Amino acid sequence: MIARITYAFREMWASFRRNLTLTIAAILTSAIALLLVGTTLLIQRAFDNLLVQWKGDVALIVFVRSDATPEQIALIDESIRSAPTIIDVDKLEYLDKTQTYEEAKRIFAGDPVTLSLLTPENIPSEFKVVPITQDPALVRSLSEQYRSLPGVEDVALAEDEFEVISTLSRFVRTVTLVMSLVLLFVAVGLIWNTIRTAMFARRREIEVMKLVGATNWFIRIPFMLEGLLQGLIGAVLSCGGLWVLNSAWTSGVAGFKPGTGISSLVVPSGYLSGVMIVILLIGALAGAIGSAIAASRFLDV
Amino acid sequence: MIRLENVTKRYGSETVAVRDASFDVAKGDFVFLVGPSGSGKSTILRLVNRQERPERGDVWVAGQNVNDIPDSRVPFLRRSMGNVFQDYKLLTGKTVFENIAFALEVIGKPRHVIARQVPIVLDLVGLAGKEDRFPHQLSGGEQQRVSIARAFVNRPLILLADEPTGNLDPATGEGIMSLLDEINQTGTTVMMATHDHRVVNAMRRRVIQLDRGVIVRDQERGVYE
User: Fold this and answer.
1) In this complex, is the C-beta atom of A296 within 8 Å of any C-beta atom belonging to chain B?
2) Strand partners, A117
3) What is the pLDDT of residues A12-55, one digit of tens each?
């Protein structure tokens, strides 16, 4: 058993070094593809931070003063519900101070100055309003009504604040996703090709192995390990790249004026590690799949 | 040890390589398959080690119907037979020792077994002291000895040789033949395809003669004719 394992690893290394140019090409392609996959995930998460309070077709947020009395809050609730033809009453949601504070933690993730000014006591609570009507003018006139109610601090309209960002986010997500899928496909293809070339270069050896009774798995495993290693090295490189990109972005964003929204486009480090693990897995998988297909198809050389 | 029962093998729809061939080779026999190029000699060897499958009929090796062996078990069938070729099929990047060790390595033999077996077989084929040479540093006859050593190191039941003297001068070929004879003396069944009149006539062993895929003669202690 040990003899077989050392054999597999020794053969993998020998082949790895023999086809250095092709191997480097395969590694770099998978690194770039995986970097794009990771960037896609990070961008999505960053935009999600920004859009978290507008999830679920929320078009209007009524912020209630932190010192509002329960009567005032009840009145606001009542007047919002008084227009069931314009807004979706069932989807009306009220976030109390604690819930709003939790949300703020994500929105101001990259803006600790603003966040430190907020406490669960001084933060406004909020009503999230989902409209039924498609007419933005109607929603806007509604917002003017709410603004005049006692205890209302402010009314925010999605149209004003985040329509553009949400469209942009969808666009960026689609583009990066498509690009990373295409590149991932190319990476699998390149790994497949390096393994095929490696097997073709050693077809005589493989023929002899088959004739003396080596099993197909015995022949296949070093090649599969080689492909897996290529994918994995690509993934490690892309993790490094992702870390550098994210650090540069986070420190760049920190320079923006607080409260501009851009500062919430950051990703917590826990999420980054998660993305890195996903990338390592995808890399290993892509390498193993590419080389397994090649090793099975070209074993009859 | 080897039995063919009404075996027919065609390549494509036109070329008949072997037609309705039947014969039985007992354990420890030495058999020549003779005939001109394209008469089906090599195909029979390839049917025995299951590089090919018959279209009709059965091939039996060591009591097993080769046709019934699933693909995953074929490697184990092949471990019971050694193969020797006209062009040696040595790995040029490996030394003599490594070429022979390779055959044991790829069937998972541990290193200490390899270290013990290889020198014994090198001695047997008369190449002791040349273990660190590369194939291109050896003569044709010596290279063929390495390939025989590789085929025999696993002590197979059967040795299949396809024109092993085809690339060698008569004197060198004689040496190879006496080596194969020696291996046969240890109880290994040898089946050798050749169109070399001299070696067949000198050995006076069983001769199976093929002509365009058909067995036209099967004679004990035969000559080439």
Assistant:
1) no
2) none
3) 888 778 778 888 988 998 898 899 888 888 888 887 777 766 66
Selection from B26, B72, B31, B67 nearest residue B50 by Cα: B67
Can you tell me the distance from the alpha carbon of A3 to that of B106, in angstroms, rounded to the nearest whole number? 9
If DSSP codes are grouped into helix, strand and coil, which group holds residue A59? coil
Q: What is the pTM of this model?
A: 0.70
A160: number of Cβ within 10 Å: 10
Task: Tell me which CATH code domain A53-160 carries.
Answer: 3.30.70.3040
* C-alpha R_g of chain A: 28
Mean residue pLDDT of chain A comes to 82
| Distance to chain B for A289, nearest Cα, Å | 21
Nearest to A208 among B77, B91, B108 (CB): B91
Question: Phi and psi of A183, rounded to 5°?
Answer: -65, -35
Nearest to B106 among A1, A204, A218 (CB): A218
Q: How many CB atoms lie within 10 A of CB A50?
A: 21
**Residue B89 CA to its chain's centroid (Å):** 12
ipTM above 0.90, yes or no: no
**Residue A265: φ, ψ to 5°:** -80, 50
- Going from N- to C-terminal start, the domains of chain A cover 2-52+164-297, 53-160
Q: How far is CA B58 from its chain centroid? A: 20
In contact, A233 and A284? CB cutoff 8 Å = no
Q: Decide if A3 and B83 are in contact by the 8 Å CB cutoff.
A: no
Asked if the model's pLDDT at residue A301 lies above 60, the reply is no
Pairing mode, strands B158-162 and B81-85:
parallel
Compute the Cα dihedral for B46, B47, B52, B55 and give only its sign: positive
Whether A212 and B154 lie within 8 Å, measured CB to CB: yes
Strand order of the sheet with strand A152-157? A93-95, A125-129, A60-64, A152-157
In angstroms, the Cα distances linking B40 to A68, B5, B194, B199, B216 are 100, 15, 11, 19, 12
In A, minimum Cα distance to B73 occurs at A215
Percentage of chain A exceeding pLDDT 70: 92
Instruction: Return the half-sphere exposure (C-beta side, CA atoms, 13 A cut-off) of residue B151.
Output: 31
The verdict on a CB contact (< 8 Å) between A7 and B79 is no
| Angstrom distance (rounded) from CA A285 to CA A280 | 8
Handedness of CA A231, A236, A241, A246 (dihedral sign): positive
